[in-house]
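seq:
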Amino acid sequence: MRIGLLTDAYKPVLNGVTLSVSLLKKALEDQGHEVFVFTFGYLDYEDDEERVIRSRGIPISDTGYYIGLGLSPQARKLYKTMDVLHAHHPFISGPIAVSCGRRYDIPVVFTSHTRYDIYARYYLPFVPDSLSRLFFKIYFPLFTSRCDLVIAPSRGIYDLLRSFGVKARVEIIHNGIDLEPFLSPPKKAKPDLVEDGKVLIFVGRIAKEKNLRFLLRAFASFKSELGRVHLIFVGGGNEISELKVLSRKLGIGGRVHFIGRVQYEEVPGYLAIADAFVTPSTAEGHPLSVIEALASGLPVLGMDSSGIRETITHGFNGLLATDDLEDFGRKMVRLMTDDALRKKLSEGAKESGRRYSISRTSRRILECYRELIEERRSG
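struct:
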């Protein structure tokens, strides 16, 4: 099968969507399929994999995303040879997939990765919630009605799409990862990263929608009860400088460490030196970082919010807290000071992490591809 994965951004941009596309591409190739990634920008980037097709675009600030300036001749030639087109963004790649799908009679799949309603509040603060929601309720039903299948990586995303008025067929297929590096990390991070005590870790984009200021304030409020605990942030983003300043103001600068962006292959090594994972984000669809933590055997402290509560079962593989600073902080203290509880949750994390193997989730996606192709052929 020849499969086209369409994404507004790809490597060297590293975020949940680009990582999902990369993992899916490799998993499908491992099963014997020819997989192409169609994207925009970074024309001079030297890809470390085959079949990444780039077209020109205008960069959108420093986000890593591009507004497409039309398809390259190579892309135009290859699109018509695909058996299925799978878009991973709704506003640029999605319409291209729909257009090419109709033109060349190819099934179109769309995966809705993002809580667009929440991201709009952070990145378009000048637009009233009522207006952005009205746009989504007009755009998403129209766009998805032209797709043969919509994939939601979580029940929360499924419910969001339905709330937008989407009537198209929607299948819930969870995100998956390559479990092996997290089960047996090839190399741990530097052992002298922290000199003593336990390690609480966050891995992800250091950006405002991740609610990391809240995490720093909770950590500072309960630092005496936490004792010798270090908080490590792994990831790049435009909030790092501000968070460093805030940690110093809160008097926790010596206990908070910002590693910055690392290669994905290094992430298992950082998780391996941690005792627990924490995420205060309420803007998640089905976060890969949480799945990676579970696969590493780390109990997770997260917000009781859509996307998190589907992955974390309170008292089994982690703890869920409200967005109340006191509640979040108390649960952080409990997780980091109760060794017996942490051990119990770690066992639950290992068990639940096994559900998210990319080989398993990609097989379900392949089944959907085959169904759509067969439906198209049978007319």
